[in-house]
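Take a record:
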Amino acid sequence: MNAPWKTGMPGNRDPFSAYICDEAALDVLRPVVVEMGWQPEKCHKGGLRNAVQSLSITASPNILMVDLSESGDPLNDINALAEVCEPGTVVIAVGQVNDVRLYRDLVASGIQDYLLKPLSAGAVRDALIQAQAIFTQPKAHDPAAAKRHVSTAVVGTRGGTGASMLTTSLSWLFANDHQMPTALLDLDVHFGTGALTLDLEPGRGLTDAIENPSRIDGLFIERAMIRASDRLSILSAEAPINSPLMTDGSAFVQLEEEFRQAFEMTVIDLPRNMLINFPHLLADVNCVVLATEYTLASARDAIRILSWLKANAAHVQTFVVANKVQTATQEISKADFEASIERKVNFSLPYDLKGVTNAAKLGQTYAEANRAAKGGAVIREIAATIIGVSDAEEEAAKAGKKAGGASLLGKFDLKGLLAKKDKAPA
């Protein structure tokens, strides 16, 4: 069906009307309508059929909210509504059937949104604001005004290098300091700590997405993600350890696609095994933060991961972050580490057991709990650098012109480094 409300522009008509079946929903709706500056008398008792009868003899409003609760065949009845609506009408449907397929069919028919009963004032307000924005948004697309979505993956060279700490801290900074709607995707499906760090229950959102990739859409994202704040949402899991991960990775790609539509920033906690099993996860990632330590094992694995990134994800801009830096006690010096990986370490985080412990006790991210600490300042610098990645730099990286990868054939001499460590004074 080609609904007429998707074409044309509204004339001089009422800004809003609603046809709602029950008083409980009307009691939620009327105060929001008054808040929007509209007349509460435009909230009529009665559902979709009443709307069709009324609009067949009067002009349709700019924004129409209609209740489908008493409709036996919502899609067919929507056709009848389309016949009496004037071009330019934005329609918001209300119903009590929680079905993704119905939602998709309604949106495909031209409906702006579908709200599930019982209504909440917040959901109604958001839907009406979005509908009203249709009449005020620029008619022509302005590329300069469009905000570019940035996707960042955080990978640890070894367990315990602080990848999850960086993931949660960066997400929190993007959302709170930089006011960017941010999605945190914790892909450590069995042992992830993203929700735990934010003092949240992980829910079943990520598990449901993996089990049913076809269900993933905007509505699924809205319902499955756990909100940590107004601008930060997380999708994670604590899958049973007797349930192996059974997926071809399509769910993760679909999630990334939906995040690009709904958020300005995506931060992915990406375990090494996921990087190996699902390399396509980095296809649309802009930046990779590689968390490491000045140890032999981390140096070896940093070389391997940097080499993999150079061969398989040359378009990403990689930042190497050394964590838990203790000059007097580390296995490898910074100079030897950089010589081994054949590139500079971009950022260094000092060893800060007190700060990490304090954050855990407060149920906060490290960056939030330690704003005055040196480590907190470094992570804020990392966040600002990621946001500042320009389109030109990304294009250069895609063309393979940006340096930064390390080769497995580089001169990484484990024996030599061990010898240096053995000769070092106690």
Remarks:
- The first strand starts at residue 16 and ends at 20.
- The domain at 16-135 is CATH 3.40.50.2300 (Rossmann fold).
- The chain has two domains: 16-135, 150-397.
- The chain is about 40% helix and 15% strand.
